[in-house]
Amino acid sequence: MNKEFEALLDFLKRMRGFDFTGYKRASLIRRADKRLQAVGLEGFADYVDYLEVHPEEFAYLFNTLLINVTAFFRDAPAWEHLSKEVIPRIVEGKGADDPIRAWSAGCASGEEAYTVVIALAEAIGMEQFRKRVKIYATDIDEEALAQARQAAYRPEDLKAISPDVRERYFEAANGRYVFHNDLRRSVIFGLHDLVQDAPISRLDLLVCRNTLMYFNAEAQARILARLHFALNDRGFLFLGKAEMLLTHANLFTPETLRHRVFRKSAMTNVRDRLLALAHTGNEEAGNRLAQQVRLRDRAFDTAPAPQIVVDLNNNLAMVNQQACAMFGLSARDIGRRFSDLEVSYRPVELRSCIEQAHAERRVVSLRDVERSLPNGEVQRLDVEVTPLMDNGGGVLGVSIAFNDTTAHHRLRTELEHANEELQSTNEELQSASEELETTNEELQSTNEELEPTNEELQSSNEELETTNEELQSTNEELETINEELRHRTDELNRVNLYLESILGSLRIGVVVLDRDLNVSIWNPRAGDLWGLLPSEVEGRALLNLDIGLPVGQLRDLILSCLERKAEHDELMLNAVNRRGKAIRCRVTCVPLADSDGEIRGVVLLMEEWEGEGREG
What is the pLDDT of residue 267? Predict the structure, then answer.
């Protein structure tokens, strides 16, 4: 952290009320260095002293730090999409006399706000615009707002506007073009800090282009929360081309990501709960009724999920086959007090849950219950205690169902890990895009500062504009490369998942070693043979592992494969598997070569063998 620069920012906040703490430091330091060079100073501490002696320098500093780069219909394809696709949808969603509200946040000298005026007026007509539309235009720079209120622009500022549109919305005066006064009354300009000030509300359209990229991630999060509040439920957010919001999908969802148009996301979670009660009451013969009872009992007994029924007197009333197998119960236990059975308190305390289900007459759910299995593995269960009631609403007992969620828990953990990695990658990508766009904005600002200096520099300015176009083209190419990179990353993730699925489905142990004989891959079957998880062995030397396989006898076999003395070789070894059983294990060694034929390691295939093979 640059302490002198932080002291300068604190000084600006105390003296002039400008809080730059949420802005990206790299960009601010680059801009502030320009003023230091202009006044001939070397350090920020000296510049603080200079500001105290020369208060007029504050205006120059703020004009330098606050990059007011804007234009009419900037990024024309995006504005064309907004005018043809988004604004008509806003108008269609309104009544004939309903107001339309828009906000141009970070409007700078006003070109963007007046572009919104033109787009809306072209969509609904000038008369309807005057009656229904209110546009708010805000910025933190008072000097830029003063220029925006004047609404007077040079001819070259209107180069993106067609002559017929310019004639309808501007009047020529003293060598400049002034926006029509009657339409200008619908635009309210005001000073506003996106980080600190309360947002404008009930908006149909919020335009905030190339503004967020100047703020750090924490400030961006605060601003986006305010922008989310500002929009109505069907409102649209229109951002700059470097602002993607990939990490804020909970606030905004892309409407058209290419043109950076987003919709407000709903912030509620809806859960649908269905409770079906079946009552059978017929007057058929007794044998028909008995058949139905037997069928229902059989369906209960063969249900795939373990299930137990406890009556109102706390006695075990019913238990199906799955529950018997899981908890060691039998038909002899039916009628016993449930609290005397081990299942009432292991793997989880169920007696209090039964009392709660009786008292509250609702399903009591226990999620992610851990149950230790005899083989040392951990099983995860979702337990549901459901009250059973008669037609009059009286409680008859409870049904306790045990759903095995072990596989789901494992997949969920893997998915969360993958999502965290993806979010981190997206944040880094978005930050890089914003930094690149910030640099382009600064270059454009520098060009605009150089334009009025001298006619002799016109040729140099044109060369700089050409350079900017090349940079923009390079930026677009980088965005394309980034998109391809994301696709390739997705493909790689799918291939990795496919490979893991293949390795997991093999019924033989697969171990991949690098040239240093360290474990790279250890599939589930290898773990099942030797009782070690992949996380316990990956990265460790195979020959140092203490497992039931005499790994020292594999050294010559592996070295032979690494030296390519054989395409593959195998050994038969006496071993002890993870259950302590003595087995014969056939180990096949295959060289692992890359596309150039260079040996990168070996693949060991291990399987319990009952035939004959070469002894180790």
Answer: 55
Residue 334 near residue 326, CB atoms below 8 Å: no
| Domain end residue (candidates: 264, 298, 314) | 264
Among 408, 437, 453, residue at a domain's last position: 408
Q: Is there a single domain that holds both residue 326 and residue 402?
A: yes
User: Which residues of the chain fall below pLDDT 70?
Assistant: 1, 67, 246-249, 267-297, 391-392, 452, 454-456, 459, 461, 565-567, 611-616
Give the per-residue pLDDT at 276: 24
Separation CA 440–CA 75 (nearest Å): 14
Read off the amino acid at residue 570: E
d(CA 423, CA 416): 10
From the list 112, 93, 118, the residue with the least C-alpha distance to 236 is 93
- Distances, alpha carbon 140 to alpha carbons 13, 67, 285, 433, in Å: 13, 11, 85, 24
Whether residue 225 sits in one domain with residue 107: yes
Same domain, 88 and 50: no
Structure tokens at 307: 């299930």
The burial class, CB within 10 Å (0-12 / 13-18 / 19+), for 357 is buried
Same domain, yes or no, for 40 and 87?
no
The CA distance from 235 to 203, in Å, is: 6
Question: Domain of 223: which CATH number?
Answer: 3.40.50.150
What is the per-residue pLDDT for 430? 81
Query: Does residue 466 lie in a domain region?
Result: no
Pairing of strands 307-311, 395-404: antiparallel
- The pLDDT assigned to 277 comes to 25
Angle made by CA atoms 72, 241, 484, in degrees to the nearest 5: 150
Residue 186 lies in a domain: yes
pLDDT at 330: 83
Residues 24 and 161 in one domain: no
564 near 591, Cβ under 8 Å? yes
Domain count, the chain: 4
3-state secondary structure (DSSP) of residue 549: coil
Give whole-number Cα distances, 130 to 98, 111, 164, in Å: 12, 19, 20
**Pair (238, 301) in one structural domain:** no
Neighbouring C-alpha atoms within 13 Å toward the C-beta of 460: 11
Tell me how many degrees the CA angle 147-149-152 measures, rounded to the nearest 5. Answer: 60
Q: Is there a single domain that holds both residue 247 and residue 363?
A: no
> Residue 31 maps to which CATH number?
1.10.155.10
pTM, rounded to two decimals: 0.48
Question: Would you say residue 468 lies in a domain?
Answer: no
**Distance separating alpha carbons of residues 391 and 604, to the nearest angstrom:** 65
Task: Give 421's contacts (C-beta < 8 A, 6+ positions apart).
Answer: none
3-state secondary structure 106-123: CCCCCHHHHHHHHHHHHH
Residue 269 placed within a domain: no
Query: 597 — alpha (psi -120 to 50), left (phi > 0) or beta?
Result: left
- Non-local (6+) Cβ contacts of 97 within 8 A are 131, 132
Please state, in angstroms and rounded to a whole number, the distance separating the CA atoms of residues 409 and 381.
Answer: 10
Q: Return the residue matching tokens 């209107």.
A: 158
| 201 closest CA partner among 175, 235, 167 | 235
Q: How many residues can be counted in the chain?
A: 616
User: Which structural domain range is residue 386 located in?
Assistant: 288-408
Same domain, 221 and 87: yes
* Lookup: tokens for 170: 């501007």
